[in-house]
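Budget justification aside, the reviewers requested a transparent look at the raw inputs and outputs of the sequence design task funded under Objective 1. We therefore reproduce one unedited record. The lines immediately below are the structure tokens for a 206-residue chain.
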């Protein structure tokens, strides 16, 4: 028997920051329910890796459809983890116009803060699950990307710096179907210090 028992360790969900329970316009109930989904992605990631470790690749050919299903599901779970860790990581601040290096990058690559905000909001209205502002290392500039689910459509060699969750679960409790009002409130709660910390940690130079 040959298995896919590659080395891996279980991971744990990050703790919920107290400031996330006091967001402006996004209720504690909504954040708590949403956070449980994030914890679910962490559990799912660990579960799928355990399952992959038990797959016997010396078995019949149908094992490959099982591997495909597990690895696709894994990308969904890991996407769900990464997306939400960015989302929760940079919420809990006072919003307002970006400051520091992120503001310099946005003005350089979009022309103005308003143009960037309008484009990201439109991307959020258009996508089914996510909109991101990410730094593309090949073009050395920011773009706003759209995502339908946790694992679509990341771009290789791009690093997300803003992650806007537009799944209904992010706003339905507070705004019902009014996604636009939720997106406005999302901007009001961003912590630009956190985003600038990422820019520094990743070595992105404006
Ligand atoms: Fe979400």
């Amino acid at each position: 028997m040959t298995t896919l028992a590659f080395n891996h360790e279980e991971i744990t969900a990050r703790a919920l920051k107290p400031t996330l329970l006091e967001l402006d316009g996004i209720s504690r109930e909504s954040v708590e329910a949403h956070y449980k989904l994030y914890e679910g992605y962490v559990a799912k990631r660990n579960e799928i890796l355990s399952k992959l470790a038990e797959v016997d690749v010396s078995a019949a050919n149908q094992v490959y459809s099982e591997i495909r299903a597990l690895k696709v599901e894994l990308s969904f779970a890991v996407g769900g983890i990464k997306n939400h860790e960015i989302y929760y990581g940079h919420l809990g601040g006072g919003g307002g116009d970006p400051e520091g290096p992120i503001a310099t990058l946005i003005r350089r690559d979009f022309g103005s803060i308003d143009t960037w905000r309008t484009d990201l909001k439109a991307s959020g209205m258009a996508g089914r699950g996510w909109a991101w502002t990410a730094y593309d290392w090949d073009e050395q500039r920011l773009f706003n990307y759209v995502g339908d689910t946790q694992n679509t459509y990341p771009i290789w060699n791009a690093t997300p710096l803003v992650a806007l969750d537009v799944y209904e679960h992010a706003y339905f409790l507070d705004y019902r179907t009014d996604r636009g009002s939720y997106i406005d409130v999302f901007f009001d709660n961003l912590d630009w210090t956190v985003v600038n910390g990422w820019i520094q940690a990743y070595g992105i130079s404006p």
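DSSP finds seven helices and three strands in the chain. The CA atoms of residues 62 and 179 lie 42 Å apart. Computational costs for records of this kind are itemized in the attached budget.
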